[in-house]
Design brief:
The chain has about 60 residues and is mainly α. The chain has one domain (about 5-55). Helix content is about 40%, strand content about 10%. It contains 2 helices and 2 strands. The protein has helices at about 15-25, 40-55; strands at about 5, 10. A two-stranded antiparallel ribbon has the order 1-2. Strand 1 (about 5) and strand 2 (about 10) form a beta hairpin.
Length: about 60
Amino acid sequence: MVVMTLKCCSISSERAARLDHIQHYVDLGFDEVYVHNVGCHQEEFIRAYGERVIPKLRWTEE
């Protein structure tokens, strides 16, 4: 597994690690998190996030 955290972004080849990274920002109170796929399979990337990542995020209720 490859995981890199830079000053402005987190990079990972594993979906579970990406979920943890995004959840960290949600837990800090961010209400918008932007993700980017550097590959050429954009539709597959969007579908995978919509089906396997976003539904697993735990948003705080206000």
